[in-house]
Write a structure and sequence with these properties.
alpha+beta; binds zinc ion
């Protein structure tokens, strides 16, 4: 058995670029290797753990807002409890193409329960990578791991689309978060 290298932790006093507080940063080696070169660690500024946690919490909040707080599981449960009907309005979320904005499109149900899997067929949106048939989870049948998914209708997003061109809106996660926050 190879001898395991001894791990160590180094510390360095830094100023947080987030809150301006002084803090002691630390970096530990794993199997004798540091995640960063020591000379890149020993710098005067960094991010304190509180600011790091706040940034992580914000990232999670933004990701949840982007998905309008739906997951594949909750979408499936929603459609099982409230089976879609022909002509019903739903929302497509397309996270492909754009760097910072996502597309929300207003679509209509063409076939609410197609085939034994009760797929939902919609009309009104497609890009090069998706078909118009979706599983009950909202995943695209043509590209289930793709970046186009079907979500239940959302009044705030739906209103915004209808006030615009009636087809789609492009929003950053930050914009979605503030829109959802304005809900009564
Ligand atoms: Zn800080």
């Amino acid at each position: 058995m190879a001898e395991r290298k001894k791990d160590s932790t180094i510390t360095w006093d830094k100023k947080c670029t987030g809150c301006g507080k002084k803090f002691t940063d630390s970096m530990s080696s794993l199997m004798g290797r540091f995640p960063w070169p020591v000379r890149l660690f020993k710098v005067s500024t960094g991010t304190c753990s509180e600011c790091e946690q706040a940034a992580e919490a914000l990232r999670e909040k933004l990701a949840a807002a982007r998905d309008l707080h739906w997951t594949f599981e909750t979408v499936k449960a929603h459609f099982e409890k409230n089976p879609p009907v022909e002509g019903q309005e739903l929302i497509i979320l397309d996270t492909s193409w754009q760097l910072f904005t996502n597309t929300y499109a207003l679509v209509k149900v063409v076939a609410p329960a197609s085939g034994p899997q009760k797929r939902i067929v919609i009309d009104g949106y497609s890009n090069a990578y998706n078909g118009q048939s979706f599983y009950r989870t909202g995943q695209n049948c043509f590209s289930p791991k793709g970046q186009v998914r079907l979500l239940p209708y959302h009044p705030v997003i739906g209103d915004l689309i209808k006030e615009g061109d009636g087809r789609e809106v492009k929003l950053t996660p930050e914009e979605v978060l503030s829109l959802l926050k304005s809900l009564p």
